[in-house]
Structures are given as structure tokens and as C-alpha cells.
């Protein structure tokens, strides 16, 4: 059994200009275009799904004025969670109050 490293976070452009919810341990944000890969790595359909940390993003289960809620599944445990993704371009002082109150 080999040790696996955490998946890098998605780039904001890849999730419709939204904020990341779980930063990469080194503080870097990657997109599919700039993820370091080995030459002989094989990709599958699940590798191409967007992800944040160790969570693969699945379907949208809710949508509001400045955020979406997506169903996500933990890569290692399979546990399902809801992840709120906030569109920073839609935030203004009024909507910020809604987020933090």
C-alpha cells in the first residue's frame, strides 16, 4: 500500500470564480493546467472531477445570490459532506453581513 498525498485545491476559474474552502497545505492553488504530474501518470474520470483538498465536488444541491452548495465526497473515507462555495465577485457589504451574521 502506498502513501498518497492530499489533492491540490481547484483554481477559482475552474469553479466559476468562487473562493476555495480548504487551502492546499503549502498555500498554493492549482488548476488542472498547472498541476505537477509525472510523465507516466494515468488519469481516470474521477481524476478529472473538481476537488477541494481531499474532497471531490459532485452535484450542486443549493444555490443562492452569492454562493452554491455542492455535494462533496471525501476521497479516502467516502463520507459525503456539503461544501458552500462563495462567489467573491458577488460579495458586497450587505451580503458580507449575511455571511457572518
From TrEMBL:
GO-annotated cellular components: cytoplasm
Q: Which InterPro entries match?
A: Kinase-like_dom_sf, Prot_kinase_dom, Protein_kinase_ATP_BS
What species does this protein belong to? Answer: Castor canadensis (American beaver)
The record lists ATP as bound by 84
Give the reactions, separated by semicolons, that this protein catalyses: L-threonyl-[protein] + ATP = O-phospho-L-threonyl-[protein] + ADP + H(+); L-seryl-[protein] + ATP = O-phospho-L-seryl-[protein] + ADP + H(+)
Query: Which portions of the chain have biased composition (kind: Polar residues)?
Result: 31-47
Q: Coiled coil: which residue ranges?
A: none
Domain of life, source organism: Eukaryota
Segments forming domain Protein kinase: 55-101
- UniProtKB keywords: ATP-binding, Kinase, Nucleotide-binding, Serine/threonine-protein kinase, Transferase
Q: What residue spans carry the region label Disordered?
A: 1-51
Q: What is this protein called?
A: non-specific serine/threonine protein kinase
Which terms under GO biological process does the entry name?
A: intracellular signal transduction
Record bears the keyword Metal-binding:
no
Specify the enzyme's EC class, one word.
Answer: transferase
Q: Return the SUPFAM superfamilies for the record.
A: Protein kinase-like (PK-like) (SSF56112)
